Amino acid sequence: MRDEPPGGGPGTGLGSTVTDAAGVCVLALDGVLGVRTAPELDRVLGKLLLDRGRLLVDVGRLGLSSTAVLAAFATTLAAAGGWPTARMVLFAAGGPVIEGMRQAGRHREVPVAGDLAQALTLLDRRPARVRRTTDLPGGPEAAPFARLLLQATCQDWGLSADLTERGAIVANELVSNAVEHTVGPGELSLAHSSRGLWVSVRDGSAARPVLTAESDGLGLRAVAEMSRTWGVTPLHSGKSVWALVGEEAGNG
């Protein structure tokens, strides 16, 4: 099957062909991946991941005009549920996409393989870094939603009960703080690697949260106590407040 972007023509988008190998969906891409074609990549990957769950992507014929857009592979995978709900491996004997993924370390989240056989094998292995993102509801239901999502995600990832419990407290406080002091949380992102469990909440306010009992009660103090480290990353629109929760409790 050939999936051409709207108004497609030479150099105007990404071409894609969908086949199957050993019962797994294989997407072959051609064209040039860049800022202009990244939305098309998001659309195709997102649809196939939600429909099929397991996806191999042949990037042997895919050019690259901007390495920054390689983040789209991991972002789309995380939005589709991430491991083990959604799985994706890129493969090719070489080329700019494979090399770019390796050089940027993005292969830790979206594995890369040299051929189809290796890609099929890697599809059943948990990546070094797993991630899941979701939009959060507004209002008082946001914090309970975040706790439940974190608990379900930690179970999927096989994390310890202690790490799950502390992660749930951190998620609850970050989301509650965003609901109380901003226009409302936009997105919850969870990730796990050898360093621990990352919890981050994006909201639409540029105002930096303040670690004071007077303004936040135990909220951000609990985050600091439960985490190895926490911080704020300014974004183009708003900010992300994040915390790294290790297997051991924070230093307080």
TrEMBL record:
GO molecular function: ATP binding
Keyword annotations of the record: ATP-binding, Nucleotide-binding
Source domain of life: Bacteria
Protein name: ATP-binding protein
Organism for this UniProt entry: Pseudonocardia lutea
